[in-house]
Structures are given as structure tokens and as C-alpha cells.
């Protein structure tokens, strides 16, 4: 998915390094970067260049040959409108900008994440051709298509995934309206087999040994964008995850939603003896009003161990991302903005909390 080209200063911001280091990385890696046709012949980095350099930068370090621990994460909130999908798309891009091989899975049949990454989940192939839309933008498969017991068409991982920013950017397993069938299938299977709740966990664990065509072991991070509703797919994602990242919009009343979230995780622990570790990320808030400070104090005291030390304040950039007005994740589309800087800080803090080593 194309973006306008980045100059070297923006490339340095995206990669979290200096201009001189970016130039050195380009020279070392041999990655082809276009130049302006006129004037100073300035290098113009494509978004694919940026992710290629991110992976090269991570892999050139002395400990890069050490096998990384794969981490599985769900971004989930029982409340709508708190920036869940916006956060998920930016975390996926942010992890890939650290050179981590990242797979993001859209688990909401409304397909907000899929749309935000440039795909058209409601178009058929014929409609795409009629509207002169590239066929690669349509959605034909979703996570259910990878499950061995799914009663509809079973496909390989390579057939299902989308690569909006090339091989080195985050990969996407998209969603469309037919994803709603998956929840029905999982519910029916769970009536006969309690292990059906672990369908996603089995897919992640068993792909390499039992079905290499759906092997996801090559990814450092697998990130589920779970639906707000506590449906069967969301439960399966939570049971497959090491961590659940929940955005908290401080400007809204979050106490009830967080209490419900705690109940969901407790139920998983009681029923399945398995629950992901909770990480709360404050977002889209202005820390100045007195009532917000009071709300923040209550939440951080109640959930002290879960609260991430980095947050995302209210800003025009985040408002645009939340409203779906940006064609790309904020962290990519506006690298010099306040929201991007805070999102990059959140990515760093999350990787530290999850003990994920880059390089």
C-alpha cells in the first residue's frame, strides 16, 4: 500500500535512529532507494524501503542470530470507540519498524483493521474489476480459512495473508462479513469438544509439525485485533495470547468496562486455567482536567501492575486515526507528530514489558 515517499529525516524518525545511520544502512544493505529526478537528487524512501531497512537494522546486530521468543498478543476492550483498532494497526506497524516479523489478525467481521490497511472486504472480484480496483485489494479468506476443522474452504497461509507494506512490513490476515461464520462454527464445536476453545492456540503451536501450509512460527509477534463483543473468536484469541493489551480512554468512564474486562479474564482462568497478562494503555486523553486526573488515579491504583508507563494524549493526529480519516497507521503517515512519538514510546514500553528483544 503506497504512501508518499519519505525523505531521510522522516526515515530516521521511523527507524528510531540518526540520518547518518540511515545513510549507512542503505549503503551497507544494498536496498535500492529512489532519488529525486531533479535538483539535489535527494533520496526518496518508499514505505517498503523503511520496513526493509528496519529488518536489516535489527538483523545486523551481534545477537540477531539468537532465536527470538514468539509473543502472541490480543488487543481487546469490551468498549467501542476507545481506539482499539487504531492502536492495533499502529502497534503492528510499530513492531515491524523494530524489525520484528509481525502478523496481525483481524477478528472483527466489520473489518475495520482490514479497511485501515487498504483492503476492500465487501467487494467481489467482479466488482473490483468493474471499478478498476486492483484484485489484490479484495478479501477472500480470513483466519477461519486456516483452521483444519473449518467446514468451508481451507487455504494456506500464503493464500490468506496480505502484505500492505511488502515482505518486511506487518502481514495481515484480513476479515470480512463471512468471518461471522467462524464464531458459529467455534460455538458448535465447543458444545462437543472443550478443546475447541484452544483452536487458535493449536493453530499457532501445531502449524509447523502438523500442517506446514499454515505454519506461523516464522513470526516474532502475532497480534489479534479482537472484536469488542465477548464472542467465541475473542475467547479463543485471549486463550492463545500471552498478553492482552487493552486501550483505556481516560476521558470516558472506564471503571465499569475495566471491571468487566477483569471478570472476563478471571472466567478464563477459572474455566481453562489459562489467561493472558493484562496491559492497560491510556490513550486519547487530556491529562489536565481535574475529573480526568481523578479517573486516572483510580484506574492506576486499582490496576497498578497492569498500567503501562507510556500513554497517548489527545491530539489531532490521533483523532484523525480514530475517525478513520488516515489512509495509513498514524505511526507511518505522520512520523513527526506528537501521536507518532507517543506511539513509538508505547511500542518500546510494550516490548520491554513483554521481554521481547529486538535484534
Question: Care to describe what's here?
Answer:
It is built from 15 helices and 9 strands. With 359 residues, it is of the alpha/beta class. It folds into 2 domains: 64 residues, Multidrug-efflux Transporter Regulator, Chain: A, Domain 2 (Orthogonal Bundle), CATH 1.10.1660.10; 287 residues, P-loop containing nucleotide triphosphate hydrolases (Rossmann fold). A hairpin with a 7-residue loop joins strand 1 and strand 2. The model has no long low-confidence stretch (mean pLDDT 89). It holds the Pfam family AAA_31. It comes from Paraburkholderia terrae.
Please describe the topology of this protein.
Elements: H1 8-15, H2 19-29, E1 34-35, E2 43-44, H3 47-59, E3 71-75, H4 84-97, E4 102-107, H5 112-116, H6 125-130, H7 157-160, E5 171-173, H8 179-192, H9 199-210, E6 221-226, H10 232-240, E7 243-249, H11 255-272, E8 277-285, H12 290-302, E9 312-313, H13 316-322, H14 330-333, H15 338-353
Parallel strand pairs: 3-6, 3-7, 4-5, 4-6, 7-8, 8-9
Antiparallel strand pairs: 1-2
Amino acid at each position: 500500500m503506497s504512501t508518499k515517499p519519505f525523505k531521510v529525516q522522516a526515515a530516521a524518525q521511523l527507524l528510531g535512529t540518526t540520518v547518518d545511520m540511515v545513510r549507512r544502512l542503505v549503503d551497507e544493505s544494498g536496498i535500492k532507494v529512489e532519488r529525486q529526478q531533479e535538483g539535489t537528487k535527494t533520496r526518496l524512501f518508499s514505505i517498503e524501503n523503511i520496513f526493509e531497512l528496519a529488518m536489516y537494522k535489527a538483523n545486523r546486530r551481534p545477537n540477531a542470530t539468537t532465536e527470538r521468543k514468539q509473543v502472541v498478543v490480543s488487543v481487546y476492550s469490551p468498549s467501542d470507540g476507545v481506539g482499539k483498532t487504531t492502536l492495533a494497526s499502529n502497534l503492528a506497524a510499530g513492531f515491524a519498524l523494530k524489525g520484528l516479523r509481525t502478523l496481525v489478525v483481524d477478528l472483527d467481521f466489520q473489518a475495520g483493521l482490514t479497511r485501515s490497511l487498504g483492503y476492500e472486504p465487501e467487494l467481489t472480484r467482479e466488482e473490483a474489476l468493474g471499478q478498476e480496483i486492483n484484485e489484490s485489494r479484495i478479501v477472500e479468506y480470513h483466519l477461519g480459512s486456516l483452521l483444519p476443522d473449518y467446514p468451508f474452504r481451507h487455504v494456506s497461509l500464503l493464500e490468506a495473508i496480505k502484505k500492505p507494506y511488502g515482505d518486511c512490513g506487518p502481514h495481515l490476515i484480513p476479515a470480512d462479513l463471512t468471518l461471522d461464520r467462524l464464531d458459529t462454527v467455534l460455538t458448535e464445536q465447543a458444545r462437543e469438544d472443550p478443546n475447541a476453545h484452544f483452536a487458535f492456540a493449536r493453530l499457532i503451536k501445531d502449524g509447523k509439525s502438523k500442517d506446514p501450509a499454515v505454519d506461523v512460527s516464522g513470526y516474532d509477534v502475532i497480534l489479534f485485533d479482537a472484536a469488542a463483543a465477548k464472542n467465541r473468536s475473542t475467547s479463543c484469541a485471549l486463550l492463545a495470547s500471552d498478553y492482552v493489551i487493552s486501550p483505556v480512554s481516560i476521558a470516558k468512564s472506564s471503571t465499569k468496562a475495566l471491571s468487566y474486562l477483569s471478570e472476563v479474564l478471571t472466567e478464563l482462568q477459572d474455566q481453562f486455567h489459562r489467561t493472558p497478562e493484562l496491559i492497560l494503555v491510556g490513550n486519547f486523553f487530556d491529562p489536565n482536567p481535574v475529573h480526568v486526573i481523578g479517573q486516572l488515579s483510580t484506574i492506576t491504583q486499582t490496576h497498578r501492575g497492569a498500567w503501562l508507563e507510556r500513554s497517548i494524549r489527545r491530539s489531532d493526529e490521533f483523532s484523525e486515526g480514530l475517525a478513520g480519516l488516515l489512509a495509513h497507521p498514524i505511526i507511518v503517515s505522520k512520523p513527526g507528530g506528537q501521536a507518532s512519538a507517543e506511539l513509538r514510546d508505547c511500542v518500546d514500553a510494550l516490548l520491554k514489558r513483554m521481554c521481547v528483544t529486538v535484534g
